[in-house]
Design goal:
18% strand, alpha/beta, five-stranded parallel sheet
C-alpha cells in the first residue's frame, strides 16, 4: 500500500470527531466529495460536520446532507480536519484558518496537480478526475460498504468534474467507479439532470451580457463580465454559472484556450480557463509565471483570482495565453 494512503487511513481510523472542509465557491466535486466523505465516516460511527464558507448552494442543495453544511467553525470541536478538493490552503478561506487554530491534524485529499501539500497528511492524486474519485478509492481500501447517500454524493463529484464524462481524462477506470456507485442504487440520469442541466433565468441573462463582447485572437477566445453589467441584469445573486462560460468559449473550434473574466463585488477578478490538449494551463502557475501563487488547477481547467481593474487584468492575461498557445501548439 502506498505510504500516503496508509497514513490517511491510519489518521481517519483513529479519528472520532471530524470536520470535513471543501473550497469556497464550491462546485459539485467540492460539495459531493465533502458530503460523500461525511456520510461514509458517519457510517463508520464517527461524528462528522461538513463545512464550506458558502454552504451548499443551488443547484447542489439536492444532495443529502447539504442542509447540515456549516459556514463557520466557531464553537466546533474536532480531533481531525479533512480538507478536500483544495489545491492550496487559501481555497478553504477563513474556515482553513479556523481549522489551523484547532491545532489538530489536517488531512489534505485532492486531485489538483498544483496542490501545495499543506496538510500533515497529503493524499494528492493528480491523475484522478475528481477528488470524489480519490475518496472513492480510499473508501474501497477501507473495505467500506457504500450506502446510497455516500454513493449519490461521490457520483455527483465524478459527473461534475468530468462535465458528464466528457473531459479528456475519462477512461474505463472512471466509468467503472461510476458503475460501482450506480450499483448501490444512484440514478446517473438524475444526478446529471440535477447537477449539470439546470439553469436559472438569471444565468441566461448573464450569459447574454457575457457573450455580447466575446473576442477571439490567436487561438484565445475570451469574454468578461463587469460588475456593472452584472448589476444591469435582474440583480440576482452572482452564481457560479459564469465559470462555466470558459467551457463554452473553449468549445469554439478555432480556439485552443477559452477564458472568462468575472469582476467580483470586491473588484478582484475571477479568471476561469479551459484549454484543449496539448495546451497545459498549469504552467501559468509555476514559479515566475504570470499567475504564480494566484490560483491553480488542472492542465485543461484552471482558475485564478487577480487584482483588478477588469481591463488591466484582461490586457495582462490574454497576451500570456496567446504566448502559451503559440509555444505549445
Ligand atoms: Mn475537483
Amino acid at each position: 500500500m502506498e505510504d500516503d494512503i496508509r497514513a490517511t487511513l491510519a489518521q481517519l481510523e483513529a479519528a472520532r470527531t471530524l470536520i470535513v472542509i471543501c473550497h469556497y465557491d464550491p462546485d459539485g466535486d467540492a460539495i459531493g466529495t465533502m458530503l460523500g466523505l461525511t456520510w461514509a465516516l458517519r457510517g463508520m460511527g464517527k461524528r462528522v460536520t461538513p463545512a464550506c464558507r458558502d454552504g451548499a448552494p443551488w443547484p447542489l442543495d439536492f444532495l443529502p446532507g447539504s442542509a447540515e453544511v456549516v459556514t463557520d467553525l466557531a464553537g466546533l470541536e474536532a480531533d481531525t480536519v479533512v480538507v478536500v478538493d483544495c489545491s492550496d490552503a487559501r481555497r478553504g478561506g477563513k474556515l482553513y484558518k479556523q481549522a489551523v487554530e484547532l491545532g489538530v491534524p489536517i488531512i489534505n485529499i485532492d486531485h489538483h496537480v498544483t496542490n501545495t501539500r499543506f496538510g500533515a497528511v497529503n493524499l494528492v492524486r493528480p491523475d484522478r478526475v475528481a477528488a470524489a474519485e480519490v475518496v472513492f478509492e480510499l473508501l474501497g481500501r477501507m473495505g467500506f460498504d457504500f450506502d446510497l447517500n455516500t454513493a449519490t454524493c461521490l457520483l455527483t463529484g465524478l459527473v461534475t468534474d468530468t462535465r458528464s464524462f466528457k473531459t479528456p481524462n475519462v477512461d474505463q477506470r472512471v466509468l467503472r467507479a461510476a458503475i460501482t456507485l450506480m450499483d448501490i442504487g444512484v440514478s446517473l440520469p438524475e444526478v446529471v439532470q440535477m447537477a449539470m442541466e439546470r439553469k436559472q433565468f438569471h444565468d441566461l441573462a448573464i450569459l447574454g451580457r457575457a457573450l455580447g463582447d466575446v473576442r477571439f485572437e490567436d487561438g484565445v477566445a475570451w469574454s468578461a463580465l463587469s460588475l456593472e453589467a452584472w448589476r444591469a441584469t435582474d440583480g440576482g445573486a452572482m452564481s457560479a454559472a459564469p465559470r462555466n462560460f470558459s467551457t463554452l468559449l473553449n468549445s469554439v473550434e478555432e480556439a485552443a484556450v477559452g477564458v472568462f473574466f468575472t469582476e467580483m463585488a470586491n473588484r478582484r477578478i475571477d479568471i476561469s480557463m479551459r484549454s484543449k490538449p496539448p495546451v497545459n494551463l498549469t504552467v501559468l502557475f509555476a514559479e515566475g509565471a504570470p499567475l504564480h501563487g494566484q490560483g491553480g488547477g488542472h492542465p485543461q481547467a484552471s482558475g485564478a483570482e487577480i487584482d483588478g481593474p477588469l481591463e488591466a487584468a484582461i490586457s495582462r492575461l490574454v497576451p500570456a495565453l496567446k504566448a502559451l498557445v503559440s509555444a505549445q501548439t
